[in-house]
Design a protein that fits this description.
about 170 residues; alpha/beta
Length: about 170
Amino acid sequence: MSDGGLVVIGLDPGSRVTGYGIVRELSGKAELIDTGTVRTPVKKDMATRMGVIYRELDKLIAAHGPVEAAIENVFVSRNPSSALKLGQARGAAMAACAVRGLPVAEYEPSKVKKNLVGVGNAPKDQVAFMVAHCLGVKKPAWAEDASDALAVAICHLNERRMRKLTGV
């Protein structure tokens, strides 16, 4: 962290859509830097789609210079094929971070929700509301996947601050 604050990238991986949110914390206040989604060409093979995720995240990391990353863990899926595809997308996202030297923290979706809303089964609209509130954004226009990625980034900043305060 420098005088410009701590910049973190939050990731909500998916094989079709990967959300990202880049946030800066300065003096305990979170500020939105960039957010959006990486959409993969669904008619292409998985290797091509994972390459798109890797390349696009690599460009974002190079452009914004985050020093840490936070990613949502895979939820347990009833569909093994979906879980495998999600795991591959996580792998592509984590590789993009690792190649750039970013440590990657992983968070369960329920932990992110509890951290921001206070309950681990909060609906997505409550999480989105708290994300906007934390970032001081009046009328957010970002996609749901981007909102989830921002939530992961904010959760990471909160957890990091708590560890620093408690010495854990």
